[in-house]
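Consider this pair:
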Amino acid sequence: MTEPATDSDSPDLDSCVRIGSIVSSNSHLDYVVEIFKERDCDRPPELHEREFGQPVFIKKAIDGREHAVMGVIYDTKLVDPDQGRTGPRLAQDDQAQFTPGYIEERTTLAGVALLGTAVITDDGTITDPTHRMPRWTLEVDDTVYRCPDEVTVSFHTVDEQIQLAYLDRLVDIAGDLGAEVIVALIDRLRRMLPEDDPNQRVLDVVEQNIEWQAHERRGVV
């Protein structure tokens, strides 16, 4: 089946699908996003546009230049406040509470881990990508956008080499889902690159290392 055309057909960051808005954070790198519904915007995201492992970005103006703070969806939660008032908690006592306490209606929340930043150019693409920890704090109500495939590749490419320098941070944030979200990102990048691209081998090696580390942590080796 042919997938319907989406914003991934164009690298223009001014025309991307809006996924939701930030409602809280668990840390400087870990944010909770409320997914938009039809009443929130003209074109709410479809399921495949906000799925596990979906790259996203948030626009921030810093010193007169527009930047893209890059991230990835690493978890989702369904929230029903009426049931939640008497039901079990969504997180254990030793974990950060994923659900903001002021949610008043049924909604879907997504956990977004930040991966790095890039500068947005005048033509709506990106330049100067870095996988260093973003220095800037995002704010409540900041809009989270679906990242086009071309921009995802650009963010991960430095001197024609694929890089994923954020891996350790992402594993720390995503916890038990860390290996799975990294593999999901690698699968996306693999589909975006030509089959004969030398970076395919790089992705294979990274995936093998991540899976081995995950098995080791779980005592499977």
